[in-house]
From TrEMBL:
SUPFAM superfamilies: alpha/beta-Hydrolases. This is Esterase. Belongs to the esterase D family. The keyword Hydrolase applies. The keyword Secreted does not apply.
């Protein structure tokens, strides 16, 4: 009985010890933006090898970067980039950017009322400032990260939904701002097929150099809206892939919806854009 009691006490002690330890995922910071005229928060994840070496690391910029999406992407990245899942991708820094005014920052054209086939999808107070938000990334946030951390030249922009629309916009207009793009189920329905009409009007003979991975969900349950958003998005992706001189791919996840596709898109997209040299 004394032995059993001793064993139980030992495990209780170990449990109490582990329970008192803090597991840190990253740090919260902010930058005062003169361009946006506001303080912009962001979160930073540093990979396991960061403090164990003097190496530089790729940086992943995550749009819609709330704490839940930050934790989710970091979990996938750290698992894939360590021996946990066979070190399939490069270790990387993650910068998650939470929203302060999503419709303002992530949309490329001004709409107060967003319609499709005569149906009002949404109304907004502010839209169409994607160019300003892109300038904030270029002139303020990216230089801040470059001066603070050991970063390589490889920069990945990850965007989903409106964030995917924004990432596609940056790819078209300021492509060299990022070396790689992970575009997840973008809102191709925006402004009556904005992405394709912009591509067709301005990029007759483009030669894209940045790597890009498109992930699309099955939104057929939304009827014509879901089917059209996929068709327009897939058509845009096909045009980009045809005109690309870099690695480019689109993938359709039949068993995922707009709200569930992100996890598999992160997994497949990171493996495509950030493979280790061994792979």
């Amino acid at each position: 009985m004394k032995i059993v009691t001793g064993i139980l006490l030992f495990f209780c002690f170990v449990s109490d010890t582990f329970a008192s330890e803090s597991i840190e995922l990253g740090i919260a910071s902010s930058v005062e933006s003169a361009i946006l005229n506001e303080n912009r928060p962001y979160m930073v994840y540093l990979p396991p090898a960061y403090h164990a070496s003097e190496n530089t690391f790729p940086v992943i910029y995550l749009l819609d970067g709330d704490v839940h999406r930050f934790k989710g992407l970091v979990g996938v990245l750290e698992s894939l980039s360590t021996e946990t899942l066979g070190s399939q991708v490069q270790q990387a820094i993650v910068i998650a950017i939470p929203n302060t005014n999503r419709s303002r920052d992530l949309t490329p054209s001004t709409l107060t009322q967003w319609t499709f086939n005569g149906r009002v999808l949404d109304t907004f107070e502010q839209t169409g400032k994607a160019n300003v938000f892109a300038l904030f990334l270029e002139k303020e946030l990216i230089p801040k990260i470059q001066s603070t951390y050991r970063v390589s030249d490889k920069r990945v922009l990850v965007g989903e939904s409106f964030g995917g629309l924004f990432a596609a916009y940056v790819f078209l207009h300021s492509q060299s701002l990022f070396t790689d793009y992970l575009v997840i189920d973008p809102t191709a329905l925006w402004d009556d097929n904005y992405l394709n009409t912009t591509y067709e009007a301005n990029f007759k003979q483009p030669e894209f150099q940045s790597n890009i991975y498109f992930a699309f969900a099955n939104n057929a349950h939304l009827g014509e809206i879901g089917r059209t958003n996929y068709k327009w998005g897939s058509d845009f992706a096909a045009s980009i892939i045809t005109s690309s001189n870099a690695n480019s791919r689109q993938q359709y996840f039949e068993n995922e919806t707009h709200g569930t596709v992100a996890l598999l898109a992160w997994y497949s997209g990171l493996k495509f854009l950030l493979p280790t040299t061994e792979n």
